[in-house]
Design brief:
This protein is mostly helical. The protein folds into three domains: 32-192, no CATH class; 196-365, no CATH class; 371-458.
Length: 459
C-alpha cells in the first residue's frame, strides 16, 4: 500500500475504536433510559440487593411515621386504660417496623408492588421524554416514583391497619424523578440521543469494514488491529464506568448514610453497560482470531491447510451454519429492534466476506489439500519428534563415548578416540540433515532452523 493509504487505514481503525466506545454508552442509554422492560428488570435486581432493600425499608418506615399519627391510630384501637400505652407502644413499634420492613420487602407481594410502581413511573417518563400526547406537562408536572402502596402494605404487616390507604396524603412515599423545570432539558437530550445507538453502531462496523477493504494484501493485519481496537474500547468503557460512578455519586448524594445504597444502585443500574462492553470485547477477540487465521505464521498455515478441504468442497454448508448461528444470536438477543437487526446483518456480511477471502487464500496455498493431510501431518510430526529424540540420545551416547576415549590418555586409544570423534561428527551431520528436511516440509520456520543449527554447531 502507499503511505497515504496506510495512514488512512490506521486513521479508520482508530476512528472505529472511538465510535465503538461511544456506541456502548449510546446503547446503554437507549435500553436503560428508554426501554421500560429493561428498567423493570433492573428494578427487580435493585430490590433484591440487601443494602438497597435496607435503605428502602428505612425510607418506608420514615414515610409511614411522617404521614400517619401512629400513636393516635394505636390509641383508637387499644381498649380502656391501655390507651395511655399508645405512646410507648408507638416508639417500640417503630423499632419493630424498622427491623421487619426489610423482611416485608422480601415478600413477593411487596416486590410486585415495587416493580409495578417502577413500570408506571418509567412509562410516564418515556411518554414525557418522547412528548407523547397526554403526557406530563413540562410547565407544571413532575415524574414521580409512587411508593404509597408499599407504605400501606408495610402498615398492614406491622398491624396498624390495611385501611390506611384512604387516609394517606397523595405525596406519601413519592420520589420525584424529574421536575417540570428539568423535563424540557431531558426532552431535548432525548431528541439528540434517540437513534444515536443505531447510527454509532453502524458507523463503527462500516468504518472497520472500509479499513479492511482498503488494506488489500495486508488485510489480516488490519483485521487483527480492528479486534485490538474493539478490546481496548470495551475495557475503556469499564474503566470510564468506574470513574463516572464516583463523580455522579459525589454530585447527587449528600447524605452519607445512604451512600452505600447509592453505590449499589449505580453498580446494578450500570451493569448493563458492562455487559455490552463485554460483548464488544468478545467480538474484538474473535476479530483477533480471524486476523491470526489469515496471517503467514506456521500455525495459521497449518490451520488453513486443515480447513482447505471443507472450504473447497462444503462451503455451502459453512454459509448455512453461519446463517443459523446469526439467527440464533439475533433471536436470543435481549432486544429485537432495528439496531439489533442491522448490526447483526452487517456483522454477518463481514463474516461471510471473511469466509470468502479465506477460501480464496486456502485454494491458492493448498489446492490439492485432502482431509487425510491434517492427520498425516500430525502423525509425521509425532514420528519426527520421536526420531529427533532418538538422534539426540544417540548423539549424547557418542559424545560420552568420545569423552571416555579422550580421557583414557593412552596412545593405543588414539584410534578409538578418533573413531569416537568421527561418530560424534556423523551424528551432528545427521541432525543437520534432519533439520533441513523438517524445514523443507514447513515444520520449522527460517528462524527456528537457524536457531537449532547454531545450537548444534556450538556443541
Amino acid at each position: 500500500m502507499s503511505r497515504a493509504r496506510r495512514r488512512t487505514v490506521k486513521a479508520l481503525v482508530v476512528l472505529g475504536s472511538v465510535l465503538a466506545f461511544l456506541s456502548v454508552f449510546a446503547i446503554w442509554v437507549e435500553r436503560q433510559a428508554l426501554n421500560t422492560d429493561d428498567w423493570v428488570e433492573t428494578s427487580e435486581r435493585l430490590i433484591q440487593d440487601e443494602t438497597i432493600r435496607t435503605a428502602l425499608a428505612d425510607y418506608l418506615v420514615d414515610q409511614l411515621y411522617e404521614n400517619v399519627d401512629v400513636e393516635k391510630e394505636l390509641s383508637e384501637r387499644l381498649p380502656g386504660d391501655t390507651k395511655e400505652l399508645a405512646g410507648p407502644i408507638s416508639g417500640g413499634l417503630r423499632q419493630v417496623a424498622g427491623d421487619g420492613a426489610n423482611e416485608v420487602l422480601k415478600t413477593s407481594t411487596a416486590q410486585t408492588l415495587w416493580e409495578d410502581a417502577n413500570r408506571t413511573a418509567h412509562e410516564e417518563l418515556v411518554a414525557v421524554l418522547e412528548e407523547r400526547e397526554g403526557a406530563v406537562s413540562t410547565e407544571e408536572g413532575t415524574v414521580q416514583l409512587k411508593l404509597g402502596t408499599l407504605v400501606t402494605n408495610l402498615a398492614d404487616q406491622v398491624g396498624i391497619g390495611a385501611d390506611l390507604a384512604e387516609r394517606l396524603p397523595e405525596d406519601a412515599g413519592q420520589i420525584t424523578i424529574l421536575r417540570s423545570d428539568e423535563l424540557k432539558t431531558a426532552q431535548n437530550i432525548t431528541v439528540a440521543i434517540k437513534g444515536l445507538a443505531l447510527v454509532l453502531s453502524i458507523l463503527t462496523l462500516l468504518t472497520f469494514g472500509l479499513a479492511v477493504y482498503l488494506s488489500r494484501e495486508g488485510r489480516w493485519v488490519t483485521v487483527l488491529f480492528c479486534g485490538v481496537g474493539l478490546i481496548a474500547a470495551g475495557f475503556a468503557v469499564i474503566v470510564a464506568r468506574q470513574a463516572a460512578g464516583g463523580i455522579v455519586l459525589d454530585q447527587l448524594v449528600t447524605d452519607e448514610s445512604i451512600r452505600p445504597a447509592a453505590e449499589r444502585a449505580w453498580s446494578i443500574s450500570t451493569s448493563l453497560m458492562t455487559s455490552i462492553a463485554t460483548t464488544v470485547i468478545v467480538f474484538g477477540a474473535l476479530a483477533v482470531l480471524a486476523g491470526w487465521l489469515g496471517s503467514p505464521v506456521s500455525s495459521a498455515r497449518a490451520t488453513r491447510r486443515a480447513m482447505a478441504p471443507v472450504l473447497r468442497d462444503y462451503v455451502a454448508y459453512v454459509y448455512a451454519a453461519l446463517a443459523v448461528l446469526v439467527g440464533i444470536y439475533f433471536l436470543s438477543a435481549p432486544t429485537q429492534n432495528l439496531r439489533s437487526f442491522l448490526t447483526t446483518l452487517i456483522v454477518a456480511v463481514m463474516i461471510a466476506f471473511g469466509i470468502r477471502e479465506l477460501r480464496k487464500q486456502t485454494e491458492e496455498e493448498h489446492p490439492d489439500a485432502d482431509f487425510g493431510d491434517a492427520f498425516g501431518r500430525t502423525r509425521e510430526r509425532m514420528v519426527d519428534a520421536v526420531k529427533g529424540a532418538n538422534l539426540g540420545e544417540r548423539a549424547t551416547k557418542l559424545r560420552d563415548s568420545a569423552a571416555r576415549g579422550i580421557g583414557s590418555g593412552s596412545g593405543g586409544d588414539d584410534g578409538g578416540g578418533q573413531a569416537g570423534g568421527d561418530s560424534a561428527e556423523d551424528a551432528r551431520l545427521a541432525r543437520l540433515e534432519r533439520l533441513a528436511t523438517l524445514h523443507e516440509k514447513g515444520i520449522l520456520s527460517d528462524e527456528e532452523l537457524a536457531a537449532e543449527k547454531a545450537r548444534i554447531l556450538d556443541r
